[in-house]
Amino acid sequence: MKNPYEVLGVSQNATKKEIIKGGMTAMKQRIYTLQEIQLAQKQLLNPAKRLVADFMYPSKIKAKRPKLLSIDIKPENISINDINENAFDSLK
Amino acid sequence: MEALIIIVIIGIVLLLVYLNKADTKFKNAIRLIEKKRFDEAQEALFKLISKHPLAVTKYAECFYIKAQELKNKGKISDAIEIYNKVLDSKKLLTSLSDKTSFNSIAETVFYEISKLRFDSIPSSNSEDKIKALKNNLDFIKNSEFNKSSQIPKLIEKHNELISKLYFELGQNKEKNGNLIQARNNYSNALNYCVNKSDLHYFNLVGRIELCKIKLNENIALENIKQIDKADTSIRNDFYFRYSIKLIKEGNLIEAENIIHDKLNFIDPEIEKVIKICWNNRILSTTDEISKINNQINEIYNNTASIDLLVSLYDSVTVKGNELNKVVPGILNDLEKLKPSLLNRILHHYNENNEYGKAINAIIKFPEFYNSPLLMKNLGNASFNFLKNNDITAKNYKTIISLFLTSAYSDKVMLSSLEETIWDDEYTFSLIEAVGSNYELHSEIPENVNYDEITESNISIGEAQKYLISEFENLLNEKVTEYELYNEVFKFYQDEKQSIENIIQIIPNEIVFATPYFAKRFNISNQIIDELENDFSEYKNEESLKAGIQYLNDNRDLWINDYFEAKKTIDALINSINQVDISKFTNSITARREKLIYKFETLVESMESRVIDSLNAIAKKKSSNETVLDLMKKSLEILSNNDRLKYLYSSYAVNLCVTKINSDKMTIYKGLQIMSSAYKISPNDSRVCTNIIALIQMNILDILNDRSTNISSVYSILDDIKANRSITFKNNADELLKTRNEILNKLPSEARISITSGANLNSNWRQLKKCLDYLAQLGALLQ
């Protein structure tokens, strides 16, 4: 099953007129066979089958433009030299 | 010659006299020892050294007793001196001497000497003590008398003490900052350490690793488990220094883990370590956030590569969880990136016909199955994958289950509907839609209804069916291997049937999925719970049947019970088909039988399947006793089934007639089988006719002395006598006829005697008994 919208070169919101016109254009272009063009037209002019063609189009899910991330926490002023390494000296 | 013999005899006599004399002297010496007159005893024994085998041993024993007395008085050096004389006595041994007894006392004495040397090591400094102990160890190891059973323990004591002394030395060196020598001493201590599972050993391991940290060397990570068993002070010291070392090496995450796991108590110095680790986290979080922000900018400038998009999409949750530890709430912000990332990733993959990758991206989206749009994308990606790729044993299950789950959702079709603008005034009806139910949708789009289909009210169900048939055509075209073809289509049909079944049964709004999909994405429990509820409420066994495919654990469920019961029936049928009585018996247990009887439809199915299988087998094997046994076993489960009773009786009659007529069965065995059939079908006319004939034959065999089972035959006849059916009685006159024929052949006197029963010998008594059975079994009344 070829994507009928692609065969006819029309958008997903094409009207009946655009579908018929698309068929004529496709025939002139000779990329697809006459049978493929007729099948594509038939499919898009049949609402149930057009529903199937629409099913084949990937949909975008709802997505908001996310904000850039931010961080307000600042490091405390402490260094490794401030630590007493012998704090737990086991030889005391 | 005679003179020579006489000389030899005289020689032997003289030798005996000589030895006898030495023995007497030896006994006298022993008495002297007993009287503690050791010097005199030793003098006497010395003279007997070459004359008596125990003389040297007893001579040495005198020294031993003297040394023991000195030792008891605390005169240790004197005692050692005398003990040594025992060992010196070895040089007195002659070829006549008993070396075993001497060695025994020498080994005891050697242990005493070694022990005294160990006990008397001076309490000087550790190094001297170690030297003395090592000397004594050498002394012990090099002696020929170190065989006493107590010696190993003594060596162990030496080693323990040396190890402890090295440990002390190591600690002193470590305190003075001489870490290399300290570590060497600890290593020496470890070499002498006897018990590798005591505190001393664990402390040693701890000290060695502490020295390594202080020397800025790498520690042996495999020793950490042992350090955990060391003294708390060593453990804390080690982990604290180790965490600082890790910080210095830049491994702050590990340092943080050590503090959290091993030093989880409040202390100002530990707080400092925690602060340094936290600072590090803040810095790395700041860094990571900055990187992510750059990536976000790239995404919105459309300069992000697909690799970047995928890598960010895949790592968002892991990164978010890590960053959330420093910036609470940031995980949520990061998760919000996912839809946008997925849209871009899918766009790229769809443009490039990379549908397999598109599928993988979708199924990584959290709870993607709850989103009709993502399920639609999954459906078209699966369809397009099939269109562009070969179906293989590895991918067919995924592709089929994803597509079917998508196509069998009317919500998916509704979401697709919303994407298109129609120039005609079409409306759409869900009336024929699969995966649809009036109760399922509280809200549906304005142009959707549940009305009858017309030219302008378009059937969504028709669209779904068209889509599914297109997929089936494609599948048919794409699977070319014969073996895979069968496998793929069986799977397809099972998945399709299963999802159709649950859609038909479950009235609530849940995710309807095929079994493979449900199990793979962990949503089968919801389906199973719905089916269980349906059964509990309506006793609809179809719910349980539908649930079998969705089972994924052994929970206490109706579906599990149903499944086990169904498997039991399958096993029974299998054993019947294979004519295997032991398989039949093993398949059914009391518990399993009870399980089957919980489900009405299963009982019905079992009845018809068992009878059909037995019928088929009975036709194939017309006279097989195992088939009869299988029927009898089946009757134990289906005791009230008249069809099965009839089948059993008919088969029993045919079997007996065929086998007895061809001399392949005894008439006794025939009676046994027929009586069993009679118990099951007492009014079956063929059974009654045949059992009466067999009774006659068995009685005639007894009278003609041909029966070897007389008492068993009588027992069977007693059973029949007590349970004569109407049909039996109606046919029983044959038995009376036989009785009369027998009686008529007897002389009249005998007949009178038999009738009266007086003065009968054993043969006549047997005859009377048989005639009585014939009379009782053949009586019209009773």
| Cα separation of the termini of chain B | 117 Å
Q: Count the strands of chain A?
A: 0
Biggest interface between protein chains, with counts per chain?
A: A-B, 45 and 82 residues
Query: Helices and strands of chain A, in N-to-C order?
Result: HHHH
Strand content of chain B: under 5%
Radius of gyration of chain B: 51 Å
Q: What structural category characterises the helix and strand content of chain B? A: mainly alpha
Number of helices of chain A: 4
User: What oligomeric state do the depicted chains represent?
Assistant: heterodimer
What is the approximate shape of chain B? flat
* Rg measurement of chain A, Å: 32 Å
Topology of this protein?
The complex is a heterodimer of chains A (92) and B (782).
Chain A: H1 4-8, H2 16-29, H3 34-45, H4 47-55
Helix pairs in contact in A: 2-3, 3-4
Chain B: H1 2-34, H2 38-47, H3 55-72, H4 76-88, H5 99-119, H6 126-142, H7 151-175, H8 179-192, H9 199-214, H10 224-227, H11 232-248, H12 252-262, H13 268-300, H14 306-324, H15 330-335, H16 337-351, H17 355-363, H18 372-388, H19 396-407, H20 410-417, E1 427-429, E2 448-449, E3 457-459, H21 460-478, H22 482-505, H23 515-520, H24 524-538, H25 541-547, H26 558-577, H27 581-587, H28 590-596, H29 600-620, H30 625-637, H31 642-661, H32 667-680, H33 685-703, H34 710-722, H35 726-731, H36 733-745, H37 748-756, H38 762-778
Parallel strand pairs in B: 1-2, 1-3
Helix pairs in contact in B: 1-2, 2-3, 3-4, 3-5, 4-5, 5-6, 6-7, 7-8, 7-9, 8-9, 9-11, 11-12, 11-13, 12-13, 13-14, 14-16, 16-17, 17-18, 18-19, 18-20, 19-22, 22-25, 24-25, 25-26, 26-27, 26-28, 26-29, 29-30, 29-31, 30-31, 31-32, 32-33, 33-38, 36-38
